[in-house]
Amino acid sequence: MATVSMTVNGKSVSGEVEPRTLLVQFIREQLHLTGTHVGCDTSQCGACVVHVNGDSVKSCTMLAVQADGSDVTTIEGLANGDTLHPMQEAFRDNHGLQCGFCTPGMVMSAVDLLKKNPKPSEGEIREWLEGNICRCTGYHNIVKAVQQAAQA
Amino acid sequence: MPDGTTGTGIGAAVKRVEDFRFLTGKGNYTDDINRPGQSYAYILRSPHAHAKITSIDSSAAKAAAGVLAVFTGEDMQVGSLPCGWQIHSKDGSPMLEPEHPPLAKGKVRYVGDQVAVVIADTYSQAKDAAESIVVNYEVLPAAVSMSDALTDKSLVHDDIGSNLCFDWEIGDEAAVDEAMSKAAHITKIDLVNNRLVPNAMEPRAAVGEFDAATGEYTLYTTSQNPHVIRLLMGAFVLSIPEHKLRVVAPDVGGGFGSKIYHYAEEAIVTWAAPKIGRPIKWVADRSEAFISDAHGRDQINHAELALDANGKFLALKVQTQANMGAYLSTFAPCVPTYLSATLLAGTYTTPAIHANVKAIFTNTVPVDAYRGAGRPESTYLIERIVDQAARETGIDKVEIRRRNFIPADAFPYQTPVALQYDSGDYEATLSSATKIADVAGFAARKAEAASRGKLRGMGYSTYLEACGIAPSAVVGSLGARAGLYESAEVRVHPTGSVTVFTGTHSHGQGHETTFAQLVSDRLGLPMENIEISHGDTNKVQFGMGTYGSRSLAVGGEALIRAVDKIIDKAKKIAAHVLEASADDIEFKDGNFTVAGTDRSMAFGEVALTAYVPHNFPHDELEPGLDEKAFYDPANFTYPGGCHICEVEIDPETGVTEVIKFTAVDDVGRVINPMIVEGQVHGGVAQGIGQALLEYAAYDDSGQLVTGSFMDYTMPRADNFPKFDVTTEGTLCTHNTLGVKGVGEVGAIGSPPAVINAVIDALWDRGVRDMSMPATPEKVWSALQAAE
End of a domain among B631, B653, B682? Predict the structure, then answer.
């Protein structure tokens, strides 16, 4: 077992983990932050995307011990109380989610896109989101949501 | 978004009530549920498509750290996982119905078949211990393809003696043969409807729990229909009476059909929970989902269409082979028969139709309904052969459709394959789609593409489907072992807020919003005073769940009927208080008024009176304001419309790009246009996925070679353009809302539009056929072969 400490959504946390424990397992099972989802086992779907030191990361592809000392933000840390982050608001305004399962990863990924490219073209949005799979929306309204957020 | 009306009533694009929790990570999916003392199950699955189990030694696993129990098929002596539909072959004999044990007994029949369950303190311990189970298999030849299986050289189920599950027919074969003999032209086509993996983003999961104090079982599961699971598992598999079995389907991350069925893992965790005295959680990983969720489609069709000299369709004859996989999943037998062959008239007046369907067992994952379920298969067949007939006769592909459409004034229209359509206007949706898709400008766009060395094509699909599943009397006569009504309860609370209990289940469809809009519209209440409750059999009255685009057309109608009962009773209460006759009470904008006077009561006042009945005429009126309705539809509903796809193909690489996709769908009255459009977007994406990307491929030994997201091409954001989606048309004539259903139209209408567009693009280069999925390799090879 190893001890890991990190900041998650602004709070210091630590825990005992097996070396093989994935960051997403630590977040879901030890911190009980279940908004971060697991949709595959090959690092394809992006349902588990969180921010680690400000960059979007598939938390199924990182060991918890690798995140030791990091600053992690999950979907639970994005809104300010009842005030949604502009990206969350844009997803709601544009019906960018249906079943909601891919949504946390999709939103976290899209937030990072606008941080790195504040005014992306539609093609750039679609290319960036290539690592996040949604089975419900056909991506149409997700792309619209990101476009709206980019104008906010 | 179209937003024809303001407010929260019918027709308003109300933003979704459920979104806040999903957007903030507060959804409550099955894997998010953790029960005190919970243990974890890992299912050991067969690595072979077909093998005898000669021995299982689980002694090492049982001794491993943290392991609580290991069970095999010999330990789990329970009922067979039931099939909900019985088809009879054309000779009158019932379909062959093999036993389906939750854990395999003596033999495994597909890669993924459940062999043993290991239950441990942690998931890792269960998984690690499973590796130490020694299973000796005697590997048998596998019947993987349907043609191999039909030879019966290797039987999937020895005890039933054949791999032919049933050999069914519909329609008048003599009339078809007669028409064929007189035809000016006969177009023939051979098609494969590619096998798909539904891949809802949330993998299946189940948590089983037993309360020794009360003798009650609880199952939390990823289901589209918790009451159906309770009935099937309780009555047929585990013999648990329904009053001692609670099934909860909480937030569910997509279904698309794959979460309708009662699966082995649900029975395993429920059965094992009292044996170990702790709750048990099982969660599929994605690779496991690929080999344990029911697959979709997988038909082979041969069709012949007879035409007269004017291009009028005279007859259609179809032979279908439908893959059932290794066992009969819950709905499987009805998919290629009553959900597919009954749709073979499509939007056309073809007077004679005959279809023969052979359902075949193979050593593959069971196949069942996947978004559209049978209707995409028939639609693909019709719209492909109509396009081919147009090519062969030299009639324009739009014109040949127009000549054969069922006219708008011909409804109700009786088809030769059992169904009676109630409404539709196919010319109208075709005409609108033609304008939106700018068909007039296509030739110029094609020429411009050609100047860049690219091949442009345009394809049509003027489709129809039957949904709003389903009239119980009709489906009962066709072999359904259940009724397909829906239920709703409207519980008005003393201070006038409302909880609605619906027997449907929302796993992305937005019922919490749409159903609240219906109530808001009818009762004049603000949305925030209305709560929609679903998914828990201990809260909600028996209901059949969500599939077959039925929630609004059947469940919404049940809801409206319950609301109307509330209004009726409330009028009586108001009449009593206002000292008037109930017949004189008018209800409008949330107020009950004595007609022609200013005497009125607000809805909330009536509610309070109902629950504080100090001055009630108890001999005439019961206290309380709580009403229930069960609604059984008179007919299916019949959405239809026109999809037009424009593609551009790079002949150097074979890559097909969807440039523009236009959908004009007649889905009846639209309650929330934002949600309706979203449903079409998602369905179209799955249809384009089937046409261009997705294929569940087995090798000759029965291994699924596209068994992960690394290998199976899930549609991504960069595979699509934005879609042009509009709705227009006619109302359903047999429900009061006039709604038809929208969940499946996108997936049903779109695949032939895409493939017809691909063939159109390749036609001038000599390519005459293309199968799904039209991958770059396939398109490039077809171009090379044609040169």
Answer: B631
Indicate if B764 and B745 belong to the same structural domain: yes
Residue A90 lies in a domain: yes
Say if residue B601 is in the same domain as residue B627: yes
Rounded to the nearest integer, the mean pLDDT of chain A is 97
Question: In Å, how far is A5's CA from the nearest CA of chain B?
Answer: 22
**Is a pLDDT exceeding 90 seen at residue A150?**
yes
Query: Which of A20, A101, A123 has its CB closest to that of B202?
Result: A101
Q: Could you tell me the sign of the dihedral formed by the alpha carbons of B100, B102, B107, B113, in that order?
A: positive
Q: Give the SS3 label for residue B68.
A: strand
Which residue range(s) make up the domain with B678? 296-470+635-786
Tens digits of residue pLDDT in B27-78: 999 999 999 999 999 999 999 999 999 999 999 999 999 999 999 999 999 9
Q: Is A14 exposed, middle or buried (0-12, 13-18, 19+ CB in 10 A)?
A: exposed
Is residue B1's pLDDT more than 80? no
Percentage of residues in chain B having pLDDT higher than 90: 98
A96 Cα to chain B: minimum distance (Å): 8
Residue B2 has pLDDT above 50, yes or no: no
For residue A137, what is the nearest residue in chain B, using CA coordinates?
B682
- ipTM value for the complex: 0.98
Q: Which two tokens stand for residue B737?
A: 């809302």
Residue A60 lies in a domain: yes
A-B C-beta contacts closer than 8 Å: 187
CB contacts of A126 in chain B (<8 Å) are: 716-718, 720
Which residues of chain B does A75 touch, with a Cβ-Cβ cutoff of 8 Å?
23-25
E strands in B245-351? 245-248, 280-283, 299-307, 313-325
User: A108, A56 in Cβ contact below 8 A?
Assistant: yes
Q: What region, left, alpha or beta, does residue A57 occupy, with left being phi > 0 and alpha being psi -120 to 50 degrees?
A: beta
Name chain B contacts of A139, Cβ cutoff 8 Å.
681, 685, 716-717, 720
pLDDT band of B720, cuts 50, 70, 90: very high
Q: What is the CATH number of the domain that holds B585?
A: 3.30.365.10
pTM to 2 decimal places: 0.97
